[in-house]
Design brief:
Layout: H1 3-6, H2 9-12, H3 29-42, H4 48-63, E1 70-75, H5 82-85, E2 95-96, E3 106-107, E4 111-113, E5 120-125, E6 141-149, E7 156-161, E8 169-175, E9 180-187, E10 191-194, E11 201-207, E12 213-217, E13 220-224, E14 235-238, E15 241-243, E16 246-248, E17 254-261, H6 266-283
Helix pairs in contact: 3-4, 4-6
């Protein structure tokens, strides 16, 4: 066993930073657990600067009431390696299908860049009932990503399950050919956001009722009056759409974060994730 592995957490994860005693250190138990798992995957300690901003993300999402809505989530930045970036904040780790992504696709500050072929299987079924307490779990759902560099390929999907014709789809897709983003949240009809195909930052959908859902693009929320129709059972893919188990519309975008779970304030999630990705860039 190495000397570093015998030291207390704060010393093991503070490599390379002088004046340790004067620096703030992570205090949130869930953040410490996540950082410990990340360090194991990376095979090296987490720098204090990264650890502190991740800790702030955990504390901020808890303070705003967002954290409990995150049921499957990855911060695709900050870690030293791709393996570390695929360690989940909560939930199960995604599958890097066919090992399509490699370390060269990963930037610690920008995130993971697609190639139009590679994608992640979140392992989360689109019809998951995360809460177990609501009368209709179809109407308690969110999906979100943080886009660093926008998609440039035809109908490139950021996070999606099923096609519109397959019923109860969840889609967040950039369509540069038709100059738009289109969305679904456990619905059939697509909502079109014309001129937004190159939007970056947090993009997401959140549904907490049968009649409508909220879409967030470029820092603004829009209520979409499209009813839910159930939920398909396809797993949600990240960087691609899942059409009955097969990828389609795989993107070349760079993503630094994704989350899946119950309904939440997309504005609060946006604030927390934007602060996180910005602070990671400043820390490295």
């Amino acid at each position: 066993m190495s000397l570093a592995s015998k030291l207390p957490w704060t010393h093991r994860f503070a490599g390379g930073y002088p004046g340790l005693s004067s620096q703030p250190l992570p205090t949130d138990a869930d953040a410490i657990d996540y950082l410990t798992r990340m360090a194991t995957a990376d095979g090296a300690g987490v720098e204090t600067g990264v650890a502190v901003v991740v800790d702030a993300f955990f504390r901020d999402t808890k303070a705003s009431g967002v954290f409990d809505a995150l049921k499957a989530c990855c911060i695709l930045a900050g870690a030293r390696t791709l393996a570390g970036a695929l360690v989940p904040v909560v939930g199960d780790a995604p599958t890097n299908v066919a090992d399509g992504f490699v370390n060269g696709d990963y930037s610690r500050t920008a995130g993971l860049t697609g190639d139009g072929t590679s994608y992640l299987n979140s392992g989360v079924s689109n019809d998951s009932d995360f809460s177990g307490t609501v009368a209709n779990p179809v109407n308690d759902n969110h999906n979100a990503v943080y886009v660093t560099t926008a998609n440039t390929v035809t109908s490139g999907s950021y996070i999606s399950a099923s096609l519109g014709l397959e019923g109860g789809a969840n889609n967040l897709v950039s369509d540069p050919d038709n100059t738009r983003i289109f969305t679904r949240n456990r619905s059939d009809a697509a909502e079109l956001f014309v001129g937004k195909q190159s939007a970056v930052g947090l993009l997401g959908t959140s549904r907490q009722g049968s009649a409508s859902y909220v879409v967030r693009i470029e820092g603004s929320d829009t209520t979409v009056n499209v009813a839910s129709v159930g939920a398909s059972s396809d797993n949600l893919f990240v960087f691609s759409r899942n059409s009955s188990g097969s990828p389609t519309g795989t993107t070349d975008a760079t993503l630094a974060f994704y989350s899946i779970g119950t309904s939440l304030s997309l504005e609060d999630l946006d604030t927390a994730v934007t602060n996180l990705i910005t602070a990671i860039g400043e820390a490295l």
